[in-house]
Amino acid sequence: GKTELASIRVKENTRLIIKKLNLNKNKETLILDIPEGGILIEKNNLKKTSEFKIISPSSTIEVRGTGFKVL
Q1: Which of 6, 23, 37, 38 could form a disulfide with 71 if both were Cys (CB 3.0 to 4.6 A apart)?
Q2: Which whole number is the average pLDDT over 34-49?
Q3: CA-to-CA distance for 7 and 71, rounded, in angstroms?
Q4: What SS3 class is residue 3?
């Protein structure tokens, strides 16, 4: 079946690197590196075994909510 982990809007002039992507139904993993720019994310609820991480120059974010911005 179709798996949708998140909807990601990328701001103009943003560099986005997908460090890890695994859509295994037992453990979904998405790790993004954003060295410059910003994104807006709307994501589905994660399973307890899933990992959703954003890395930027000023912070590393582990996500558990449903929507957020990285600027």
Answers
A1: 38
A2: 81
A3: 16
A4: coil
